[in-house]
Design brief:
The protein has about 300 residues and is mainly β. The chain has a single domain (about 1-285), classed as Clam (outer membrane lipoprotein receptor (LolB), chain A), CATH 2.50.20. The chain has three helices and 17 strands. The strands form two sheets. Strands 3, 4, 5, 6, 7, 8, 9, 12, 13, 14, 15, 16 and 17 form a 13-stranded antiparallel beta sheet that branches. The protein has a four-stranded antiparallel beta sheet with strand order 2-1-11-10, with no helix packed on it.
């Protein structure tokens, strides 16, 4: 998981895309291997279908006080979001899919390069790994999974699957080009969470993830020299919860399970904005399907 931040104000955004609604399966509880296989099959099918989809992502970044109440006005970033996935790249089973972002508005106006607060993740991060990539066959070995019971999510019976990344957390941190006070960091490994998987269709209804423990990293020298007393940052929490619902399309008729909202909480000791809540809504889903026909020349 990655983020970008000004030294005085840390900010992060989340994005994700979902899976496709399918016909009901037997109601008996499968074992873990079968659950992951069926859910992974649905994710692969979704990735193949969703490349023709575009949606509007609206992210509200709200700094929080010590008591986690709003502290000041939120920053709102509106973007066009689409899925990028190449099934033929590298292997027959792609390792991951990505979401591609094009920012169109910031606080209601076109984005400005010289905006002092333009160092939020939605504005600086054009692509990011699609979180459901963890269920692709060649990614599952990177995680430990276990069935943890049943529950209901949005009125649907769901299987609960807990997961933890095997790799210990590592952090890559750097300055964003042209912005000496804008930090880019990427945390790999050290994440855990839970999946809510529809007990009949094996579609993902909800995905939660967060750090398994605190992560420390030092700022690059060019950034630390401005505030040496805050050269060490500690990410205490980096939580995300993504929810999926059915979205209907016509011409041709189709129903897909897609993300509709995401809620994130970030707590970073040392940053100017140590507590940040990120609320994301995915709306205005549309398909880019083209059709053509041969028009015969007009008769003379």
């Amino acid at each position: 998981m990655s983020g970008r931040a000004f030294l005085p104000a840390l900010a992060a955004g989340v994005a994700g895309l979902g899976v496709v609604l399918t016909a009901a399966q037997p109601a008996s509880t499968p074992d873990l291997t079968e659950t992951l296989q069926r859910a992974g099959d649905r994710v692969q099918y979704y990735f193949a279908r969703a490349q023709s989809l575009v949606c509007t992502e609206t992210v509200a970044l709200q700094p929080l006080s010590l008591g986690f109440s709003p502290n000041g006005r939120p920053r709102t970033v509106e973007s066009e979001l689409r899925l990028s996935w190449d099934p033929e790249a590298e292997t027959d089973t792609p390792l991951e899919a990505s979401t591609v972002r094009h920012v169109v508005k910031v606080n209601g106006h076109p984005p400005r390069d010289d905006d002092f607060n333009s160092c939020t993740t939605p504005e600086q991060q054009a692509t990011e790994t699609q979180p459901l990539s963890m269920l692709l066959p060649q990614r599952r070995d990177e995680y430990e999974f276990r069935l943890s019971g049943r529950a209901r999510e949005d009125g649907r019976a769901a299987l609960l699957v807990d997961y933890r990344m095997k790799a210990r957390p590592t952090v890559e941190v750097a300055l964003v080009d042209g912005k000496d006070d804008c930090i880019s960091y990427d945390i790999q490994g050290g994440m855990r969470g839970r999946l809510w998987i529809d007990a009949e269709s094996y579609e993902v209804l909800r995905l939660d993830r967060g750090l398994a423990g605190q992560v420390d990293f030092r700022l690059p020298w060019r950034a630390a020299r401005h505030a040496p007393e805050r050269a060490l940052w500690t990410v205490e929490r980096l939580d995300t919860s993504i929810r999926f619902k059915a979205v209907r399309f016509s011409d041709p008729d189709e129903t897909l399970i897609l993300p509709v909202s995401s809620l994130g909480l970030q707590v970073t000791r040392g940053a100017g904005t140590p507590r940040l809540r990120t609320t994301t809504h995915y709306t205005d889903y549309r398909r880019f399907l083209t059709a053509g026909r041969v028009v015969p020349p007009a008769s003379e």
